[in-house]
Design goal:
By secondary structure, the protein is of the alpha+beta class. It contains 22 helices and 27 strands. Helices cover 36% and strands 25% of the residues. The strands form five sheets. A six-stranded antiparallel β-sheet has the order 3-2-1-6-5-4. Strands 18, 19, 20, 21, 24 and 25 form a six-stranded mixed β-sheet that branches. A five-stranded antiparallel β-sheet has the order 8-7-11-10-9, with helices on both faces. A hairpin with a 5-residue loop joins strand 22 and strand 23. The protein is elongated, with a radius of gyration of 36 Å. It starts with 24 loop residues before the first helix and ends with a strand.
């Protein structure tokens, strides 16, 4: 695709150069398009030069802040204008429920009733951008043929003009958005304007006019008195920033809802210390008229008629800020159970439900991935349900459409099979969990009492379903990766330690808490005859490559030991093998040939941390061993050996650097602390000693590296 690439980059919205008559091309084309199909807002996007990105060039009918998250849209984004360009066709979204289901990112930020159409602006071979237009939700759910024809023709005309501009190398210049300007005067003239001001000043209730940005352009004295600010301090400001007790996202949300839906919108607010005020907004395409009055009767009604236990007032519905906060929390969920916990802790209380169940599909059946608040017998009824069964859970999963049941009678009338499931609840919301265009599960929210689901609540819940689905898909991928990593690690490490003549043994392995949960640390015991061997090592990194190399090294050490090579030869052969593999990774290693009859060990070290030896009298020392460089650096490196006595009752501690190394920790102090714990532990079972050394290591608790520990206690009966 080739776009108009000659336009300058600046902070201003891009636009085309004036035509021969000096008229702005994009603004006029957009205004004509809105007028033809009776839409109330829209925008034109142009394809960025040499980038798969759509940039908003001009917007009409709404403040640009409403679409701020989509000023720049990647062509791969799940956004209508991007999809229209990708598929070169018109995209129609009939209302807030469909928006919530198909484009949850938009519905989360703009959970209001409106319809939207998006179209590409393209000629036969070149895409120049895209357009979207919106209507209030009073628009029929189907876009008519004549609307489709008018929109397509308007986009085609705009594409031809952009093609001509590109051919003539005319740059695209900044162009202002189309927002309705206040009238310069009226048909009644100045006298009429003065009389209108006098009339509004006589009224006992407050009147104010807000422009499309929400700024106060007029307020009568009654409005100023009710709000507690003089008119001069209100003019030019936004109510929710000028009036402290209106500084709540919920009130700005009502203003956005009125403009986008073009519906009369109301709310009540408490003016401290105890006066309730009623606000009613009357929107049009030029702004809003606001009426403010006292609402004592409403406040008294709210106090004398509380909502039944377990239900929620409309004002308690999840707000935009709360939904966005939940979206942020879901991005931090790692595994499936994290998602279940976050949904149970955040969504269930916010929407007033009492229980939650998240279902996935596997092998043609529903599986309960997690639940909260459901009795176990009800969970068993859901778990294992065939996907072809006539239940709301399977229906929602297969169709991708949400289902809301305000009462048990309504549910059982449509799904008689549910009569057998007595879960103790009286209303349900079944939300499809759709991620990457495919269903990944169903979220069931259950209510203790009959619960109506108005349109705005259905839209919010469906949007939440989209967020949960994306988090769940990530979590299931993480869990699968974790299981794969754990299984691979377990396959590469010894399943159990073989019995060695004259020695007790114990080992522990802990993966890093950062990264892929798999690493290059390894240990092994080789019960060869006549002398057994032990090895511990650490391949650089904690990923699949490191784990694969670790498996090769462990196998090589075992093979070289079995054929009878001496310790220094085993290390040299393993070093040459690493060089021949050409993996550009390094490894440290400590190899021991054990001789229980002589009560000693012959050790060879390749850049590995020195082992600790606790003597039978409890004294601990760090063994100063001769050695060579890390494996994989020098093919001609040699690895001298050191003979160390191991009297009966002595304990040898082999470990990788993850046990003692952490940011901000001095290695000498860490070794001293490890030796102190080893000396203070006493003559405890070897497995318990291994646990103590790991549990009390600061580096092992917050691991940036893997940890392997191998302990050997000389028995003296070899």
């Amino acid at each position: 695709m080739v776009g108009v690439s000659e336009r300058p980059r600046s902070g201003q919205p891009p636009a085309t150069a004036p035509g021969p008559a000096g008229r702005p091309l994009l603004s006029l084309a957009l205004a004509a398009m809105l007028d033809e199909v009776h839409a109330h807002s829209g925008a034109v996007y142009l394809l960025a030069p040499d980038q798969p990105v759509l940039e908003m060039a001009v917007m009409a009918g709404m403040p640009r802040a409403f679409a701020a998250p989509w000023e720049r849209v990647g062509l791969s984004a799940p956004i209508p204008v991007a999809q229209a360009v990708r598929e070169r066709r018109l995209i129609w979204v009939s209302g807030e429920e469909e928006m919530a289901r198909r484009y949850p990112r938009i519905a989360v930020v703009l959970p209001y009733p409106f319809a939207l159409a998006a179209l590409p602006v393209a000629t036969g071979a070149t895409v120049y951008g895209a357009v979207f237009v919106t209507w209030p939700d009073a628009h029929p759910p189907v876009l008519s043929d004549w609307e489709r024809e008018h929109l397509a023709a308007a986009c085609d005309r705009l594409a031809v003009r952009l093609e001509r501009a590109a051919a003539e190398r005319r740059p695209v210049l900044p162009e202002p958005d189309l927002l309705a300007a206040p009238p310069a005067g009226g048909v009644t003239g100045t006298f009429g304007s003065v009389e209108a001001a006098r009339m509004t000043a006589r009224l006992p209730y407050g009147l104010a006019s807000l422009d499309l940005h929400g700024r106060v352009s007029f307020a009568n004295p009654a409005a100023a008195g009710l709000l507690g600010l003089p008119v001069t301090e209100l003019l030019g400001t936004r109510l929710w920033t000028a009036v402290p007790w209106l500084n709540d996202p919920m009130y700005e949300d009502r203003y956005r809802a009125a403009l986008l839906s073009q519906h009369v919108t109301s709310f009540v607010a408490l003016r401290p210390p105890g006066e309730w005020l009623s606000f009613r907004m009357y929107p049009s395409t030029t702004g809003l008229s606001l009426r403010i009055s006292r609402a004592r009767a409403v406040a008294e009604l709210g106090r004398t008629a509380p909502h039944p236990e377990g239900t929620q007032s409309p004002a308690g519905l999840v707000t935009i800020s709360r939904v966005l906060g939940l979206a942020g929390a879901l991005t931090e969920a790692v595994g499936v159970q994290d998602v279940v916990r976050l949904v149970a802790d955040e969504i269930v209380p916010a929407v007033g439900s009492r229980a939650l169940m998240i279902l996935g599909s596997q092998s043609g059946r529903l599986h309960v991935l997690g639940h909260r608040g459901y009795p176990e017998r009800a969970v068993e009824e859901f778990h294992g349900t065939p996907l072809g069964a006539p239940t709301p859970s399977t229906r929602v999963l297969s169709t991708g459409a949400p289902a809301f049941f305000e009462s048990r009678q309504q549910l059982e009338r449509l799904y008689p099979v549910r009569q057998a499931v007595r879960d103790g609840f009286a209303a349900w919301a079944y939300l499809p969990l759709i991620a990457s265009g495919r269903p990944v599960g169903t979220c069931v929210l259950s209510y203790a009492h009959p619960h109506p689901f108005p349109a705005d609540e259905r839209a919010v819940l469906t949007s939440l379903g989209g967020l949960i689905a994306q988090a769940l898909e990530r979590a299931r991928l993480y869990d699968a990766k974790h299981r794969l990593a754990h299984g691979l690690q377990q396959a590469l490490l010894p399943r159990s330690l073989p019995r060695l003549p004259g020695f007790e043994t114990a080992a522990r392995y802990l993966p890093a808490t950062q990264g892929m949960d798999i690493g290059g640390d390894f240990y092994d015991l080789v019960p060869s005859r006549p002398l057994a061997a032990a090895v511990i090592g650490d391949v650089q990194g904690h990923n699949v490559t490191a784990a694969g190399l670790m498996g090769q090294l462990r196998t090589a050490v075992r093979a070289y030991t079995t054929v009878g090579q001496e310790p220094q030869e085993v290390m040299a052969s393993t070093n040459r093998l690493m060089m021949e593999l050409g993996v550009e990774l390094f490894a440290s290693c400590l190899y021991l040939r054990l001789d229980p009859a002589e009560g000693c060990a012959v050790m060879s070290r390749a850049g590995h941390p020195p082992p600790l030896l606790r003597r039978p009298d409890g004294r601990v020392r760090v063994l100063d061993l001769a050695g060579g460089p890390l494996l994989g650096i020098d093919p001609a490196a040699t690895y001298p050996t050191t003979r160390v006595g191991l009297p009966p009752g002595s304990v040898l501690v082999l470990y990788t650097d993850g046990l003692v190394e952490s940011p901000g920790t001095d290695i000498e102090e860490a070794l001293a602390g490890l030796g102190q714990r080893l000396g203070e532990a006493g003559d405890v079972p070897l497995g318990r000693l291994a646990d103590l050394l790991v549990e009390h290591s600061a580096a092992a608790r917050e691991r940036i590296d893997d940890v392997a520990v191998l302990l050997l206690r000389a028995r003296g009966d070899g």
